[in-house]
Amino acid sequence: MSEVTTWPWLPTELIENIISEVWSSSLSTNDRITLMTSSLLVNKTWMVAFTRISSKDVHIPCPSYIDQYLRILREESPIYDEHSRSLPDRLCRSLTFRVGYTPPGHDAAPSGNEPQMAKALSDMMYTLHTISYLPNLRRVSIEYVNWGFDDLFDQYRLIAFPAQVTNLELDYTFSQKTPPWLIGALRSNQERHMCLPWSLPFIRHLSIQGAGEAFLIDMVSACPNIQSLTTDAYIRLGAIIPLPDAVQMVTLRESTSMPLTREGMDGYNLIPALDGAFFSVPTPTLKIVIESGVPDAAVWDEYREMCGERGVQLIHRVL
User: Is 47 helix (H, G, I), strand (E, B) or coil?
Assistant: First the structure.
């Protein structure tokens, strides 16, 4: 009699760790959709673990998923039984959108041709603003891929926004084939939107990566009560003078982990910004965090002392 080979059962904790690690990874849109569809077919243990984990940090991978997700929130999805139908609404703490457009043979998108995902973003924000879904939602992340910087403003994407959200993350990325000069031109040629039709006074933590100074200034002005601001190290601190009075931490993030030299430290323009009108009202608890490669010890100590003399704590974090 031949022996029957069976696959060993994985402990539930290990399954949850695997799913959590994969789900939090930076997946392509197609890979995330594949993960979402296939995870419901493995077995019941895997499906239950996946639905719980993916319900906490929700990704909207394509416009068509908006309708499916709203059916879940309305407790109309057959995936959940009567005991678990309300879980997605109560568990969700973050929403992530990826808005992208890549015309055939091109890497960077023009300013026209509204992507379907951007419209889906507007529709979702309007729904959450008008209906009391996702009471524990605290973070909204929006990544624009191969797209310009005006869509949020020109299309009023955030004019209706869920007030329970305290963290807003905006990330602008381009494919590797996009010429650096083109990205730089898009950033530098962007103009200020002087009179924004919306405000986000409930946002406490604002992160903006990959955009230019004009975009950053507009968004900071739209979020008057932020307590922390995270942005790219190439942004001149003097360009965003003055910051809102509630700001307690500014984080400047380098794009590489190259060692931080004196030239790099001088480029942050820290001391002139602190000696200028960096704040309309002095903030004695201000921290400036530099995320970069390992800094030159002597140069770092020098700058830390100068910042300390001005009542500012300078902190370094290794990328």
Answer: helix
